[in-house]
Write a structure and sequence with these properties.
15 strands; elongated; about 350 residues; ten-stranded mixed sheet; 10 helices; alpha/beta; single chain
Length: about 350
């Protein structure tokens, strides 16, 4: 691994610290290097606050070294005025010697403009360093802007004999360790979705417990509004969308959105894109998961399997004929990871 790759790798490490907190912005890390030594580091913490490059610049104690330094950034510096001024202009103004970019930004407002501002100022720019890793870091952001839909993660837990529950009643399949993993997943992703049946059977809260983290936006698909409003999903712990065919409007943290049953998945993608949801975990149940699998509408799938547990009767787990790229063991649970993204 050459030096440029080493520093971009560090940018990625820094960026990951803010996972789950930057929506709708991407995860970005930045490192400033002078004569082979890191003199500044920073990452974007959350939307509305300083971008990574500015945090890195602010962390440099001796600003006089900047014109002789290289700034590394995992994603192309922005070129537009949003809540903060463009980073590309700041880099130009400070006159860095060189700029090294991990991935270019496909987002309409940037898309090569940041790089051009810097090059036009006579500063050397290199891009595409560890590009795949930098794109993977922002798979949610890139999917949202390029495919006009959120990054989709399917998730379920099944017994050794392939059931989601015993005798159609909620059944614990995951162990405590796996539950912690699931809550971390919720904290990292933007939203979480369930269908009517799961909400009625399990009465889930869909919030982050067992660890520190932000609650995801909850999405309930409930065409006929069968889920009673005293159920956990209606509590005030998180922003909640209820997609239904009956009513529209806001009631506190709950937003009712009307949606057609016909062409349901494309309509759902449109709603989530409009609401700027960048990633969503589809937690079930079987019918909802099957719709996504049948339409090949998923980027990642996580299956928790408890091989020793035999349930014999109940809701069958969705049929899913793919090979995992990774399997992790959490005591008696195996977590299988599948990707449709790369």
């Amino acid at each position: 691994m050459n030096n440029d790759e080493l520093y971009i790798k560090r940018c990625i490490e820094l960026a990951q610290k803010a996972l789950g907190n930057t929506y709708p912005n991407p995860l970005v890390g930045s490192v400033i290097v002078h004569n082979g030594e890191i003199i500044g580091e920073g990452y974007h913490h959350k939307a509305g606050e300083n971008h990574a490059e500015i945090n890195a610049i602010n962390s440099v104690t001796n600003k006089e070294l900047i014109p002789e330094s290289t700034i590394y950034v995992s994603l192309e510096p922005c070129a537009h005025y949003g809540k903060t001024p463009p980073c590309a202009l700041k880099i130009k103004e400070l006159g860095f010697k060189k700029v090294v970019i991990g991935a270019m930004d496909s987002h309409d407002k940037v898309n090569g403009k940041g790089k051009k501002i810097i090059q036009d100022a006579g500063i050397e720019v290199i891009s595409g360093i560890l590009e795949d890793e930098c794109i993977r870091l922002n798979k949610r952001f890139f999917t949202y802007h390029e495919k006009k839909r959120p990054y989709i993660i399917l998730k379920w837990a099944e017994s050794g004999d392939g059931f989601l529950d015993k005798d159609f009643k909620p059944t614990a399949i995951s162990n405590k360790l796996t539950n912690q993993f699931v809550h971390q997943l919720r904290a990292d992703e933007h939203a979480i979705l369930v269908g009517t049946q799961t909400a009625l059977n399990d009465n889930p809260s869909l919030t982050v417990r067992n660890l520190e983290g932000t609650n995801p936006v909850r999405i309930l698909i409930d065409f006929d509004l069968k889920v009673p409003e005293n159920f956990n999903i209606y509590n005030n712990e998180a922003r909640t969308f209820v997609l239904n065919s009956i009513k529209e409007g806001h009631e506190g943290n709950i937003q009712f959105i009307k949606i057609e049953k016909e062409n349901f998945l494309p309509a759902l993608m449109q709603v989530l894109y409009k609401e700027q949801i960048q990633s969503v975990i589809i937690e079930g149940g079987r019918f909802t998961l099957k719709q996504f699998i049948d339409s090949s509408l998923w980027d990642e799938t996580i299956v928790i399997k408890n091989e020793n547990l035999k349930l014999e009767n109940g809701t069958k787990a969705p049929k899913f004929d793919f090979n995992p790229y990774k399997i992790e063991s959490f005591r008696n649970n195996d977590i299988k990871f599948f990707s449709n993204y790369f």
